[in-house]
Design a protein that fits this description.
The chain is 76% helix and 0% strand. The protein has 128 residues and is mainly alpha-helical. α1 packs antiparallel against α2 and α3 runs antiparallel to α5. It is globular. The two termini are 28 Å apart.
Length: 128
């Protein structure tokens, strides 16, 4: 739920603060702030509830990425005030057009593994 809250706050901030820079630029900037917010959140979670092994970290990351995609598709296609076509939804994943959303999914997918690995290195326990 924390990641979803970060996403909602980030989107609201984008709409409130970045409306004058253009839609694509606003989305690119907010992708950076979202990635930073998610990384910080992952660090806090890892400190509070250390991830025991790499397999668990990959499961957590996969779950977050799949849940995000399901939310984006479900809300964007079925629930939102302006339902999107499949091509509109897929367009948000086209890096060639300057869309950076796939990087958010990559951070969600690999972030728990990376954060766990950093903790392991700091503690001197890189074999676990």
């Amino acid at each position: 739920m924390g990641a979803a809250l970060i996403g909602v706050v980030n989107g609201g901030a984008r709409e409130a603060v970045l409306k004058d820079v253009g839609t694509r630029s606003a989305h690119q900037i907010s992708t950076g702030t979202l990635v930073a917010g998610l990384a910080g959140y992952m660090c806090v979670l890892e400190q509070r509830w250390p991830i025991p092994d790499q397999r668990t970290a990959l499961k957590i990351g996969s779950t977050w990425a799949v849940a995000t995609i399901a939310f984006e598709v479900g809300f964007g296609r079925l629930v939102g005030p302006d339902p999107k076509s499949w091509s509109e939804l897929l367009d948000a994943y086209d890096i060639r057009k300057g869309h950076l959303w796939p990087f958010v999914l990559l951070v969600e997918l690999l972030g728990p593994t990376a954060i766990r690995s950093m903790r392991q290195r700091r503690s001197g326990n890189v074999a676990a």
